[in-house]
């Protein structure tokens, strides 16, 4: 519902706004070539001229104008810097083409109340840019890791070949190393052996306890809850220290069982929290209805309650799984060389002999977490839908 | 209904009073709930709470001194360190036999390491003396064996010590307990030896040393006591006993050999002097300082580790600050607090605009942007840390870009890693989602009409934000800040990798003490302090936000 009607602005204004951006990017291009001031002036002037032309004469043929601008930029980029220049030119061409008409057509005003002063409009967009930069800050590290993992060299930075989009600069050798190196495969195997078992433990105990906790009359509910949640609150290093001391007393330190138990303890709070949250919306009359129709408590649980809280159980299980799969501090102390997990191997790699294989592993892990994120989100939606169906 | 008009209690369908019937049902319900919770509760108590309790226990536990030197610390109790004189011969005598057993069990170096935390140099003192203990007894052993071969035979010794008549099983039990404390393990099995009461009265020190030997041989080496030659220390005990023993009334096994030995020793050997022996091993043994330290730390529980953790120390004269050069924990605590605060502040500054944007965009766009927040949240911690290591390195991506832009000279690349800056940047990034999510959920509940109402009443943008919107978002800031602060203060992995020497936290020191310096007591004390801070903050979090409001994803 756009309250504000888009009013076309003057060509000078559109060109001026575009020129500010042009000058800004010009500084960087300029410093890279030797003179920041020159870049600033040239960038501003060129963009101003181009924008003014487009905004004055080509308002009606927007599409053609934007394509034209992109082509000009691409050609200019190619002449300057070859293939990488084409990519840079395309990005800037599309950006400026969009920017010029966004301003010139007055569309930039549509999301803002009609009474907003020019300064408020400026602040509105400045704020978006700031927030956008922060979001970029949030995902840059991940975006940097992914391309670097295809590096053909053993460097942790973009080589000139990579920047030139030379196929020679890219390779899968770090992935190959991950899949053939016995250290990494051993670590992967250990992770795969530990995480599911501790997840099953956490989910099994946790679901039962969550059902118990959601009963109407539980003595010492607060205290029990505090104890069960505590593994999430206590800093990992303290948990690790305590477990190291205690498990070495009882002979669990350095054993597979010790690591599994420790990880299960760390995953339990997540199961408790997600399952109790699901149970909050659970309609008790359903179990009563089941009992009324002659189902015993076990049948009621598996046929009525379990299907309804399953999304919560699964997402709790996923949290527990990722906790164990990602965990490094506790396994570092409680485990021994025989329980070296993937994060542990990465930790060693980062601290001692930093090898780019880490980046390949990191990329794979990001892929896994994207899948898990999607699963949890789907489950959450399903859970909400199911809850919507039951009268509450 | 007619029921209510009846006199007497209301009855349930089966005839029991309704009140009792209801109570029973309630009790059964409670019991069922507890039964469902019990397995997990026991599981968490064993796998998690017990370790934490163990850590707290270790932060004050100090049995090692009295376990390793049980008799010496007991005799030492009467000694007054303020006199400036070393303790008397009886302390050195007790020390000799305590240390002998400890050296056989290889426990003396452990004690040396423990006391070295309090008094530098004790470690090497114990180690070197432990090697030389046999020399004292060997002297007498040689003399005795030259005079009579039987003194070198295990069977003869066994017969002599077992004697005839009553045996003293209690002494063996005591020595077994002594060895158990030393080995820190339960030792089962039969010793197969008990000294006779008669010989114990006649040769007390010999019996003491021989029982130590017998218990150790039977339980640790798993040999038959009668077939093994006794330790050199036993000969030292015999030499001491024979100096004064009155053998005239003794007619048990080996009586004539004892009389002969008494004579031989009186003729050929110097009287035994433990003080002189220890002094010859190392002059430090006659320094009162060592003994004052042992005396100070001989109690079973100590606050010494906690004092260490706050740069103080327990000296014989009371509690005092450590010398200037050795104070590092207060600095570390301050740094941990300062960096955690900085990280929290940066998270507020960066998280607030993003949360505001997310809360004020239409749902479809907000969900899309939310993915950008959740993706790093879900990404492995090590992935993000490695990413920052890659980006911040001197040959890393950021420096390369800066050099390419000409903002930084190639020779003067910025040092952004292995210092506080690196830790703060990486941890701000890692903890930012924990700030954005609570802020977002609070901001979603603030009606946008308030801001419009304020503006329509004539408030400027800033006033409307500062006086109307901001106060309503404070609970979100509070929740997010405490969450981020709690997480930051106990972080280990990221500071370890990108922190270098100046960017590390107290948690890194705890890990160092556990795995490298092996000062577990100090690690436990530092951990206990950190735990107390976190629990305090968590309590505050509970008061502000409530445990039940913890949400995920």
UniProtKB/TrEMBL annotation, chain A:
The keyword ATP-binding does not apply. The gene is ydcV_5. The keyword Membrane applies. It is a multi-pass membrane protein. Residues 188-376 form the ABC transmembrane type-1 domain. It holds the Pfam family BPD_transp_1. It is found in: Cell inner membrane; Cell membrane. The chain crosses the membrane at residues 12-31, 37-57, 64-81, 87-104, 125-150, 194-213, 225-247, 259-282, 308-334, 354-379. Belongs to the binding-protein-dependent transport system permease family. Keywords: Cell inner membrane, Cell membrane, Membrane, Transmembrane, Transmembrane helix, Transport. InterPro entries: MetI-like, MetI-like_sf. Signal peptide: none annotated. It comes from Pseudooceanicola marinus. GO terms for biological process: transmembrane transport. This is Inner membrane ABC transporter permease protein YdcV. Gene3D superfamilies: MetI-like. One of its GO terms (cellular component) is plasma membrane.
From TrEMBL, chain B:
Signal peptide: none annotated. GO terms for biological process: transmembrane transport. The keyword Metal-binding does not apply. The keyword Ribosomal protein does not apply. It holds the Pfam family BPD_transp_1. Its main location: membrane. Residues 333-541 form the ABC transmembrane type-1 domain. GO terms for cellular component: plasma membrane. It comes from the Bacteria. The chain crosses the membrane at residues 33-53, 337-359, 366-383, 421-442, 474-493, 520-541. It is a multi-pass membrane protein. SUPFAM superfamilies: MetI-like (SSF161098). Keywords: Cell membrane, Membrane, Transmembrane, Transmembrane helix, Transport. InterPro entries: MetI-like, MetI-like_sf. It is found in: Cell membrane. Belongs to the binding-protein-dependent transport system permease family. CysTW subfamily. This is Spermidine/putrescine transport system permease protein PotB.
């Amino acid at each position: 519902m756009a309250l504000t009607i888009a009013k076309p602005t003057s060509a000078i204004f559109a060109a001026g706004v575009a020129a500010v951006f042009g000058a800004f990017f010009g500084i960087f291009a300029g410093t890279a070539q030797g003179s920041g001031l020159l870049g600033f002036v040239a960038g501003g002037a060129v963009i101003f001229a181009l924008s003014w032309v487009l905004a004055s004469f080509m308002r009606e043929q927007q599409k053609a104008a934007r394509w034209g601008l992109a082509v000009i930029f691409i050609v200019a980029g190619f002449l300057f810097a070859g293939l990488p220049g084409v990519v840079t030119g395309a990005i800037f061409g599309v950006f400026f083409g969009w920017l010029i008409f966004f301003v010139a057509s007055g569309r930039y005003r549509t999301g803002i109340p009609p009474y907003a002063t020019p300064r408020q409009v400026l602040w509105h967009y400045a704020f978006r840019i700031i927030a956008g930069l922060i979001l970029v800050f949030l995902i840059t590290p991940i975006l940097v890791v992914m391309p670097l993992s295809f590096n053909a060299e053993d460097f942790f930075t973009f080589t000139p070949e990579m920047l030139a989009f030379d196929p020679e600069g890219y390779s899968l050798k770090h992935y190959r190393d991950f899949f053939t190196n016995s250290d990494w495969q051993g670590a992967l195997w250990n992770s795969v052996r530990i995480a599911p078992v501790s997840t099953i433990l956490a989910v099994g105990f946790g679901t039962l306890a969550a059902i118990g906790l959601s009963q109407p009359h539980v003595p010492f509910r607060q205290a029990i809850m505090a104890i069960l949640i505590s593994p999430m609150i206590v800093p990992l290093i303290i948990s690790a220290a305590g477990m190291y001391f205690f498990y070495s007393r009882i002979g669990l330190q350095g054993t597979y069982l010790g690591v599994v138990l420790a990880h299960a303890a760390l995953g339990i709070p997540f199961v408790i929290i997600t399952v109790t949250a699901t149970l909050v919306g659970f309609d008790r009359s359903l179990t009563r209805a089941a009992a009324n129709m002659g189902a015993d408590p076990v049948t009621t649980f598996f046929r009525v309650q379990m299907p309804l809280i399953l999304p919560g159980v699964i997402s709790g299980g996923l949290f527990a799984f990722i906790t164990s799969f990602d965990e490094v501090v506790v396994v570092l102390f409680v485990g021994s060389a025989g329980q070296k997990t993937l994060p542990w191997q990465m930790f060693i790699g980062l601290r001692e002999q930093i090898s780019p294989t880490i980046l390949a592993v990191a990329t794979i892990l990001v892929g896994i977490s994207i899948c898990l994120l999607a699963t949890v989100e789907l489950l959450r939606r399903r859970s909400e839908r199911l809850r919507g169906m039951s009268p509450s | 209904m007619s029921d209510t008009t009846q006199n007497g209690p209301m009855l349930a369908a089966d005839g029991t009073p309704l009140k009792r019937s209801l109570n029973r049902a309630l009790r059964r319900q409670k019991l069922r709930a507890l039964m469902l919770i019990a397995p997990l509760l026991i599981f968490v108590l064993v796998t998690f709470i017990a370790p934490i309790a163990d850590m707290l226990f270790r932060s004050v536990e100090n049995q090692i001194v009295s376990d390793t030197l049980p008799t010496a610390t007991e005799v030492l109790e009467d000694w007054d360190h303020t006199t400036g004189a070393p303790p008397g011969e009886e302390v050195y005598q007790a020390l000799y036999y305590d240390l002998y057993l400890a050296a056989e069990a290889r426990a003396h170096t452990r004690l040396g390491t423990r006391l070295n935390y309090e008094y530098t140099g004790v470690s090497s003192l114990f180690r070197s003396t432990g090697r030389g203990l046999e020399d004292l007894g060997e002297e007498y052993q040689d003399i005795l064996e030259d005079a009579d071969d039987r003194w070198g035979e295990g069977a003869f010794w066994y017969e002599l010590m077992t004697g005839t008549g009553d045996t003293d099983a209690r002494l063996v039990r005591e020595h077994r307990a002594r060895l158990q404390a030393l080995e820190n393990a339960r030792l089962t099995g039969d010793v197969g030896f008990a000294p006779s009461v008669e010989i114990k009265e006649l040769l007390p020190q010999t019996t003491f040393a021989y029982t130590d030997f017998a218990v150790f041989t039977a339980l640790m080496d798993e040999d038959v006591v009668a077939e093994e030659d006794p330790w050199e220390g036993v000969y030292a005990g015999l030499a001491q006993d024979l100096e004064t023993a009155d053998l005239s009334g003794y007619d048990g096994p080996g009586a004539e050999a004892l009389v002969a030995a008494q004579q031989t020793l009186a003729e050929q050997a110097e009287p035994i002097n433990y003080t002189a022996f220890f002094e010859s091993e190392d002059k430090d043994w006659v320094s009162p300082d060592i003994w004052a330290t042992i005396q100070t730390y001989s109690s079973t529980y100590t606050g010494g580790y906690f004092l260490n953790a706050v740069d103080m120390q327990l000296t014989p004269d009371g509690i005092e600050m450590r010398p200037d050069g050795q104070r590092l924990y207060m600095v570390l605590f301050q740094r941990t607090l300062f960096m955690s605060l900085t990280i929290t502040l940066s998270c507020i500054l960066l998280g607030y605009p993003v949360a505001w944007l997310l809360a004020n965009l239409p749902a479809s766009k907000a969900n899309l942007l939310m993915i950008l927040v959740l993706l790093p949240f879900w990404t492995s911690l090590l992935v993000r840390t490695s990413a920052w290591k890659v980006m911040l390195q001197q040959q890393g991506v950021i420096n390369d870009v800066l050099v390419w832009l000409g903002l930084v000279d190639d020779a003067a690349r910025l040092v952004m890693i292995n210092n506080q800056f690196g830790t703060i940047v990486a941890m701000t990034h890692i903890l930012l989602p924990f700030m954005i999510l609570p802020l977002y959920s609070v901001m979603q509940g603030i009606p946008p009409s308030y801001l419009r109402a304020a503006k329509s009443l004539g408030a400027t943008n800033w006033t409307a934000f500062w006086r109307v919107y901001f106060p309503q978002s404070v609970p979100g800031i509070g929740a997010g800040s405490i969450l981020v602060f709690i997480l930051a203060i106990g972080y280990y992995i990221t500071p370890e990798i990108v922190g270098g020497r100046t960017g590390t936290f107290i948690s890194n020191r705890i890990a160092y003490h556990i795995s490298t310096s092996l000062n577990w007591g100090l690690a436990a004390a530092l951990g206990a302090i950190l735990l107390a801070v976190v629990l305090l903050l968590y309590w505050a979090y509970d008061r502000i936000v409530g445990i039940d409001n913890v949400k995920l994803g």
